[in-house]
Amino acid sequence: MEIVFENVYLSFKEYVLLNLRYSFKTKPLLVGRLFLFPLAAAGLWIYVLANLQLSEALQALGLQLALFTLLGIFTPVSAWRGFRRNYESTKFLQAPTTYRFSDEGVRIDSPFLQASFPWETIRDLHVVKLQAVLLSSDLTGFFLDFRCLKAPSTKADFLALLQRHTIPVN
C-alpha cells in the first residue's frame, strides 16, 4: 500500500513554529536561551525601575543592563534571521512537494527535488501536532503535514508503515 502526502509546503511562519516545537521537544535547554535572555533583560529592567532611580541604576548596573539588553535583543533577532536564511535557501519547502511512502522507501517529488530513499536511510520521525519531521540524519530531514495525507490513507496507516520498517516515532 502506498501512502501519499500531496502538496506539502510550509509557510515561513509554519517553518519557524515547527522548528521551535521540534527543538523544544528534542533540545529544550538549547532553545530555552532564545527566551532566557529577553526575559532576564526585561526582569532586570523591571526590578531596576521598581527599586531604583534610573540614574542610580545606570551607575550601579550600567554594564549588566547594557549586556542583558543587547543579548535580549540580539538573541531572538539572530535566531529569526537564521530561520529566514534557512527557509529561503531550502526551495523545496516553499513549493508543493509530494511524498510517497511504500515498502521500498520514500519518494520525494517537487519542482526542486526528485529523490528516493530506502527505509535504511530513515532514522526517525518526530510528530509535532499536525506535522512531523522525518529525519535521515541530524542535518537532513523532511517536513510532513498530516493534513496533506491523500485519502484513504490515515495518520494511523502511516505510523503503522513506519513501525513495520522499525522507524522510531517520537
What would you note in describing this structure?
With 170 residues, the protein is α+β, with helices and mostly antiparallel strands. It has two domains: 3-10 and 92-164, PH-domain like (Roll); 13-89. The chain is built from four helices and seven strands. The strands form two sheets. A four-stranded antiparallel beta sheet has the order 1-2-3-4, covered by helices on one side. A three-stranded antiparallel beta sheet has the order 5-6-7, with helices on one face. A hairpin with a 5-residue loop joins strand 6 and strand 7. Helix 1 (12-26) crosses helix 2 and helix 2 (28-51) packs antiparallel against helix 3 (54-89).
Give a quick account of the main beta sheet: strands, pairing sense, barrel closure: 4 strands, antiparallel
Q: What would you call the quaternary organization? A: single chain
> Would you identify the CATH architecture of the largest domain?
Roll
What is the strand content?
Answer: 15-25%
How many beta-strand elements? 7
The rounded Rg comes to 22 Å
End-to-end Cα distance, whole Å, is 23 Å
Number of helices: 4
Q: Structural class, from helix and strand content?
A: alpha+beta
The proportion of residues forming helix, as a percent range, comes to 40-55%
Instruction: Quickly name the level 1 CATH class of the largest domain.
Output: Mainly Beta
Overall mean confidence score, pLDDT:
81
According to CATH, what is the topology of the largest domain?
Answer: PH-domain like
The neighbouring-strand order within the major sheet is: 1-2-3-4
Tertiary shape = elongated
The stretches of 5 or more residues where confidence is low (pLDDT under 50) are none
Order of helices and strands: EHHHEEEEEEH
Overall tally of structural domains: 2
CATH superfamily caption of the largest domain: Pleckstrin-homology domain (PH domain)/Phosphotyrosine-binding domain (PTB)
